[in-house]
Sequence to fold (228 residues):
Amino acid sequence: RKEVEQDPGPFNVPEGATVAFNCTYSNSASQSFFWYRQDCRKEPKLLMSVYSSGNEDGRFTAQLNRASQYISLLIRDSKLSDSATYLCVVITYSGNTPLVFGKGTRLSVIA
Amino acid sequence: GAVVSQHPSRVICKSGTSVKIECRSLDFQATTMFWYRQFPKQSLMLMATSNEGSKATYEQGVEKDKFLINHASLTLSTLTVTSAHPEDSSFYICSARPTGTGEVEQYFGPGTRLTVT
Fold:
């Protein structure tokens, strides 16, 4: 089983739609979770951290379910500018531990 | 926010030559930096963990003699692709985690696109 698995893409949605991505992780010792966004031919950029209590940033909501070992990202009122690849990232809490990336889910928001 | 730079952003070289890529943390110190490689339509793959003042730790399948890493200061790590071949053509991205701040996020450089002809 891969360390981090994401929904296979691509997701093609119309503007204004609500879209949700899920991601599962295999290491129960993982302690930090993030969603990164990567635009085509660019570096990943941190979108938001994910906490057990859930967190919301504008149109974006992230949830963590430790019991089931999955995290989710919900995007409401999709914009054309949301088109990108969304990367699920987990980390085991250690100073030298690298991020472990999922393969990413491609989102295309269509006018 | 924390800024990481990479140089060059794009390089084209001939097969058999070596290419050096620099990764700098501009406004923070980083004991540890990470080097990733990403092929088209593939996910980021960790190549190695670069540790200031000591040897890098390479992931399985990554040749340490081919991908030389030097982390000589708390703000600079270099990756040298030696005797490059066309199959080394890829997008190389570094990241760094600020030292001593308690942050767990990593900040990415803008990447270097290497094309070996």
The longest strand of chain B covers residues 19-25. Chain B has a mean pLDDT of 92. The interface with chain A takes residues 31-32, 34, 42-44, 46, 49, 51, 91, 93, 95, 97, 99, 104-111, 113 of chain B (CB under 8 Å). Residues 36 and 46 of chain B are 4 Å apart (CA to CA).
